[in-house]
Design a protein that fits this description.
Elements lengths: L1 H7 L3 H8 L3 H8 L7 H11 L37 H8 L1
Helix pairs in contact: 2-3, 2-4
C-alpha cells in the first residue's frame, strides 16, 4: 500500500482523510497492524486510484537489496576463521 500511495504522491494524512479514517488508524492499516473491512479496502483503493485487488499484489521494493540473499549461507553454513599468516605464526612460537 505504501508504494502505491507514494507513487500517487499522496501523504498518509490525505489517504486517511479520503477514506474517512484517522491518520493513526490509516498508519496502522498501512503497516499491517490493523484489520480492515471490505468497505475500508474499497475506500483505500479508490483514494489510491487502483482496483482493490491491486492492494494484494506483492510489494515491489524500490530499495537496493542489502547483504546476501535470504536463505544463503557462506561456505556451507560454517564460518571459516582465517589462517594466521606466516608472520603471525612466527610471532606466536617465540
Amino acid at each position: 500500500m505504501r508504494e502505491l500511495r507514494v507513487a500517487t504522491g499522496l501523504t498518509q494524512a490525505q489517504v486517511a482523510e479520503a477514506t474517512g479514517s484517522t491518520l493513526s488508524n490509516y498508519q496502522r492499516i498501512e503497516h499491517g497492524l490493523q484489520n480492515i473491512t471490505l468497505r475500508t479496502l474499497a475506500r483505500i483503493a479508490d483514494a489510491l486510484g487502483v482496483e482493490p485487488k491491486e492492494l494484494f499484489a506483492p510489494a515491489v521494493s524500490l530499495r537496493a537489496p542489502r547483504g546476501r540473499p535470504r536463505g544463503t549461507r557462506p561456505s556451507g553454513g560454517i564460518l571459516k576463521v582465517a589462517e594466521p599468516t606466516t608472520r603471525e605464526r612466527g610471532s606466536r612460537s617465540r
